[in-house]
């Protein structure tokens, strides 16, 4: 699956939004990928995650468990794990820190990949990887459907992406005039300090 095919799925699902968006990182962008609009369609999600699973098999063979950061990574993590034929687990925030809960277990022989939906700065994956490494997990790599950093995000382990799609992002005090002229909205799920 190539970049145009992936982005066309997002367009067809009404998930490629244009305007002035506050990203979960706090940066501002003229494009927001509302992946939840794609994930409501199981057939489209299956296409994307099947292609990602094939890339994982080629680049990180032998994965035994998929772990995703809740909440955004749960659906693509589950479907990618299904395509790989391995269990799907997830971490969730407890007092602001990711933890593996709900009786999920990772053994010393497991080869783990963290699967996320979209990477901008890599913060969620870094936090998930750190939580897993703190319990002794062998985190071999991370993977995402779209790397919107264009390969620049540091996730703490090698990153496998279905596609790279570099989208401009700006600090709130360094907006280009055309973006500053549009009211900002925050469609993401993670709260930002100082932004309601």
UniProtKB/TrEMBL annotation:
One of the GO biological process terms:
'de novo' UMP biosynthetic process
Q: Which reaction is this enzyme known to catalyze?
A: orotidine 5'-phosphate + diphosphate = orotate + 5-phospho-alpha-D-ribose 1-diphosphate
Phosphoribosyltransferase domain mapped to chain residues: 46-154
* Pfam families registered for this protein in UniProt: Pribosyltran
Instruction: Give the residues the record marks as binding orotate.
Output: 120, 148
Does this entry carry the keyword Glycosyltransferase?
yes
Q: Which UniProt keywords apply?
A: Glycosyltransferase, Magnesium, Pyrimidine biosynthesis, Transferase
User: Which superkingdom is the protein from?
Assistant: Bacteria
Q: In which pathway does it act?
A: Pyrimidine metabolism; UMP biosynthesis via de novo pathway; UMP from orotate: step 1/2
Gene Ontology MF terms: magnesium ion binding; orotate phosphoribosyltransferase activity
Q: Which cofactor does it need?
A: Mg(2+)
Q: Where does 5-phospho-alpha-D-ribose 1-diphosphate bind?
A: 93, 116-124
Enzyme Commission number(s): 2.4.2.10
- Class of the enzyme per the UniProt entry, highest EC level: transferase
Coiled coil (UniProt feature):
none
Q: Subunit structure, briefly?
A: Homodimer.
Q: What job does the chain carry out?
A: Catalyzes the transfer of a ribosyl phosphate group from 5-phosphoribose 1-diphosphate to orotate, leading to the formation of orotidine monophosphate (OMP).
Q: Which family does the similarity line name? A: Belongs to the purine/pyrimidine phosphoribosyltransferase family. PyrE subfamily.
The family database entries (PANTHER family) matched by this protein are listed as:
OROTATE PHOSPHORIBOSYLTRANSFERASE, URIDINE 5'-MONOPHOSPHATE SYNTHASE
State what protein this is by name: Orotate phosphoribosyltransferase
Per the UniProt record, the source organism is: Devosia subaequoris
